[in-house]
Amino acid sequence: MCLAVPGKIESIEGDDLLLRRGRVNFGGIFKEVSLCYTPEAVVGDYVIVHVGFAISTVDQAEAEQVFEYLRMMDELGELEGTPQ
Fold it and tell me: Which of 3, 4, 71, 78 gives 20 to 30 Å between its CA and that of 62?
């Protein structure tokens, strides 16, 4: 299953809006993602990530709730590299 998952931006690299990348924390799992679709995103923001691209920003409470739902549904295996 392909999901969009919330995560917190820990750092950002690059000045070109099309090439900006962020190190995103998904509850202790860190991934590098493209920030080209979220030019307004800054360090500390929560973003929804789908197939390596941050597609929108979201507030912290909503991000934490979605992540908890995914945890309860046991849908974090793909993110952690575990086959489902």
Answer: 78
